[in-house]
Amino acid sequence: MTSVHNEPAIPTGGGGLVRVRLDLGYDGTEFSGWARQPNRRTVCGVLEDALSQVFRRPLTLTVAGRTDAGVHASGQVAHVDLPVESDVDGLPKRLSRILPADVRVFRATRVPEEFDARFSALRRHYEYRVADAPFGADPLRRLDTISWPRPLSLAAMAEASRLLLGEHDFCAFCKRREGATTIRELQRLEWTRGEDGVLTAAVSADAFCHSMVRSLVGALLAVGEGRKPADWPASLLRSTERSSSVTVAPPHGLTLVRVDYPADQDLAARAAITRNVRVSAS
Predict the structure, then answer these.
(1) CB count, 10 Å around CB of 6?
(2) Better-predicted residue by pLDDT, 101 or 273
(3) Burial class (CB in 10 A: 0-12, 13-18, 19+), 208
(4) Would the pTM count as exceeding 0.85?
(5) Catalytic residues
(6) How many CB atoms lie within 10 A of CB 181?
(7) Which residues have C-beta within 8 Å of that of residue 225, sequence separation ≥ 6?
(8) What average pLDDT is seen over the chain?
């Protein structure tokens, strides 16, 4: 691995800062999630350390979605404030010389200062992959596809998924965090079976609470194998606490694939709306 100290430093004079959007991906297998944790290898920790090496100053990232341990990303977005003289276009190549093989920054783009990777986001898109073939998952996809031991009904899972769409309190499917709301607008939840036989759930929402996608998938897998009726997952939306009957699906089947943002002129307004505490529709 090439040391950054053997390369010309990116100019950092002048004191001015520019906001930079980073589009990135990672294999979550060997990471303890996104967020920094003491004595744990995390995506944020690895990226912030690499950026701090390049710019020779502490730098902090803000991310669109704080993925859990084992969860992957092909379309994650973060922002960081860098010296205005920085070679932003050349940053992905410089970081590739420092970062480990399981995380990469694909693009670095200057954005308005109103851009906030977390609060400006309109929606997040995830995919969850399940192989229910007798032999399990393809060995080349074993790190992002779970093997399910029983056949799954695509029709039953699709029916159950439709009943979950819309704005609801998803507390039955979320791990509560102090001071955080569990009201979310689930905009898409669709299952398809590919030519390879793998079932993929496409899941989109304005935001997700902790473990929400994997809990939804776990409930729908119970429907798909016939253990629960199609209306069971939606019936849990009436719950006022996390449901102990929902098994959380394994993390490695989940990938964050895209984050949507509004036009530049709407970034500040979107961030302001998102920061407001969500309240249940009357």
Answers:
(1) 7
(2) 101
(3) buried
(4) yes
(5) 68
(6) 17
(7) 148, 150, 151, 152, 153
(8) 92
